[in-house]
């Protein structure tokens, strides 16, 4: 029979085991970071086009939707109100909207332009120019393709 061996080494404490475990986690993390920059990447990467324009966050309280519908003479609706006299009528409505808005919030005013696909680009551009000339922001809304 073999005599029992008695060790004089202290039993490993939680601090020693914890530091070993932490070192292993850090090592795996560092190796993952290094290998992702060294190994080649396959597949498709999508890079958005650079633009000096960006979509910011808009305050819904100061956002109005302008809808342009097709017809012999396109009709414009600001929210649900039919605007008469085309672009001149829109100019008057925008002036009223600006007057109703408190001075400190006028820079938040945003017109979201939603136009039918049959509306000419010239008509849309004249509305966009009008919105911008009044000092408001303009955004364009569209339907997703089918």
Task: Name some characteristics of this structure.
five-stranded mixed β-sheet; 146 residues; elongated; 5 strands; alpha/beta
Write up this protein:
The chain contains three helices and five strands; from the N terminus they run H-E-E-E-H-E-H-E. With 146 residues, the protein is α/β, with parallel strands linked by helices. Strands 3-2-1-4-5 form a five-stranded mixed beta sheet. Helix 2 runs parallel beside helix 3. The longest helix is centred in the first third of the chain and has 25 residues. The termini are far apart.
| End-to-end CA span | 84 Å
Radius of gyration: 32 Å
Major sheet summary line: 5 strands, mixed
Overall shape: elongated
Q: Structural class, judged by helices and strands?
A: alpha/beta
Q: H/E order of the elements? A: HEEEHEHE
Mean pLDDT: 80
- Strand line-up in the sheet with most strands: 3-2-1-4-5
Strand content: 15-25%
Q: Stretches where pLDDT falls below 50 for ≥5 residues?
A: none
Helix fraction, binned, reads: 25-40%
How is the quaternary structure best described? single chain
Q: Helix count, per DSSP?
A: 3
Number of strands: 5
């Amino acid at each position: 029979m073999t005599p029992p061996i008695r060790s004089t080494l202290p039993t490993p404490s939680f601090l020693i085991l914890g530091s070993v475990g932490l070192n292993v986690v850090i090592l795996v993390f560092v190796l993952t970071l290094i290998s992702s920059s060294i190994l080649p990447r396959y597949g498709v990467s999508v890079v958005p086009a650079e633009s000096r324009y960006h979509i910011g966050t808009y305050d819904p309280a100061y956002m109005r939707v302008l809808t342009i519908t097709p017809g012999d003479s396109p009709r414009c609706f600001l929210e649900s109100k039919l605007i008469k006299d085309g672009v001149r009528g829109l100019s008057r409505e925008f002036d009223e909207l600006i007057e109703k808005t408190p001075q400190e919030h006028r820079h938040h005013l945003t017109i979201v332009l939603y136009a039918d696909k049959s509306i000419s680009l010239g008509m849309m551009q004249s509305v966009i120019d009008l919105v911008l000339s009044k000092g408001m922001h303009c955004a364009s809304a569209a339907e997703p393709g089918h």
